Amino acid sequence: MPAANVGAFSTPPSGNGRSRTWLLLLFIFLIAWQIVLVWIFPHFASQDGASHLYNAALIRGFRDPAWRRVPEFYRLNSRLVPNWFTYAVLAGLDRFFSPATAEKIIVSGYFVLFPLSFAYVVRTFTKEVWLFAIWGLVLANNLFIAMGFYNFCYSLVFFLLCFGYWMRERDGLGPKRLAGLCVLASLLYFSHVVGFFMAAFFIGVVALCFGLAERRSLAENGDSGPGHATSASTLSSPNLSTVLKRLLVPQLAFLPCVVIFCVSSIGSQPPFDPGKQSFSQRLLVFRELHVLVDSRGAQGILRMSLVGVFLAWGFYRAIANAVEQRRLAASDGLGILAVVCLSLCVVVPWSISGGGMIPERMAWFALCAALLWLSSSSTRWSIQARRAAIGGATLVVVLGLIGQTGWRYQLSPVVNAYEEAGRLLAPQKTILSLCYCNPEDNSNPVFSRLRIRPLEHAGDIAALEGRALSLDNYEAMGSAFPVEYRPLVNPALHSGTFSASSVSSKPQNADIAGYEAQTGKTVDYVLLWGTGPGDLAESGSILNRQLRSNYEQIHTSPPPAMLRLFKRRQTPITQSGSTLGAVFRRPEGDCGQEEYDERAREISNVEPCGAELEASFDLASMADVLSCSRADECAGPCPKCGGPGRIRIDCPGASL
Fold first, then answer.
1. 411-568 CATH pick, 3.30.450, 1.10.3470, 3.40.50, 2.40.10
2. What would the pLDDT profile of 320-358 be if each residue is shown by its tens digit?
3. Distance in angstroms (rounded) separating the CA atoms of residues 636 and 642
């Protein structure tokens, strides 16, 4: 081990075999409990998880005849943006498992891989691995996994693997090992760009600290070989070059993806800030540590207090140790990183290049750096201090699992209601999902306790179940994800209709007719959760007027769900001026029934009285209600003759 590492990471084995066995069993039990929570309910409830599943299905849908209208509304992002990793995995799993099962596999993999990756890094600092392994579970069960940020969560795994791999190979980082680091960095980039740049930042700062410590050691002790004298002239330039080599060589592994990011991602999506925050509001990140807590209330306060007390005590011990030694060890770079990341929480914008919650992400990296820093000095802790650290971490994890069990149990029937509604949808029809997701809009107390909005994108569960085309796909509204809307139908480009930013909190403002007029597309279904406070926000609103005029309510979910499904109202043949509309029902005879059952096809470009018009025909009883002298020009299966072509109406006043 190089001289710079002596005293910093050289630690004796800890504890006896029995204590390590009990800690291992406790570690496995806590992971198993978390995995059970993933699988015991039909869906893993989160804020954005349903959207990820839906877009993964769209990726496969471009080549799936069952999703034949996907290219009409969506396209694959041509940029090499991050956020591809979990979509690629989910799209592959969809071939063998249901979307809900594929999601559970992804989430279970994260809960297993993260604590193991954290232990992998801790092992480079100390042999007290099991003392901090459970703290890895504290970091794993964070706000981001409850939000459904699967790409970011997997980026945390690759972040730890990148940092741990560099820590182990830093003294012999030749071309092969550098290539290995480059592979890990590439996986990290295509998971999430924030984790990618934070890995490069962590490695750079700690590498600089190692280089400076090594230079200081050589200056004090001379050349590392015995009997070699060191003059001032040999210390300046060569040692400076060593420091720069330690600092810059690992960054070469990140350079290819940095180039890709600059070419493909910068400016791919405008930043979005939900509101200006004062300095005191930004400091709430430090006070609450809410990045490790998914719910409010006494239990969350207790968990945050335990984490805060442990970190305060650990920082005091680490600083006191540095003062006692009268020098900074190389591992103290992690403490510097913790302070820097906490400071960034106050100054960085909420969104960068389409990615939000940047201050909260910085807070997580600060906590991670702080725990890794404390692990490097844990061998000097007393037996009582170690037991307290393990007990505190265990209590934080157990309280989190108990709270998570409660709110997931309460949400399960609500989320299941979306899947039930999806079974009522006709395939390849459009659906707009809206939700009164503000806590004050819901009587169910679980929504006020959670720090997430678990129903904000739950409509994608229904769209996925019914193979419908979602018009509330927030990921596709920008260019930061693999799938994006085509410009003509993108709600974000049609202001005042129902883009994600305008109706996420106030769905009563959704202007369905405005969207249809601007895009020429029809909104076939509207799925609405909840009502406004006292039903006043919805009553008399744009949404309410349009639902009453153009839609019929076909489903209401039983309590505790508050889900209503509306279908565009079907009318017989009508004529207003030069506009013709008709609805055709499934025929009674044998003609075309099989294909009617397979799908309800839209017939367009109708020619009433010589004028070619756009009209939607849902194939109502044409044989009974329409006098059609040229039925041989019927598009698709026709109740009269089943031939291809168009419907042509010869008389201007087609009547019932």
1. 3.40.50
2. 777 777 766 777 888 899 999 988 888 887 777 667 788
3. 7
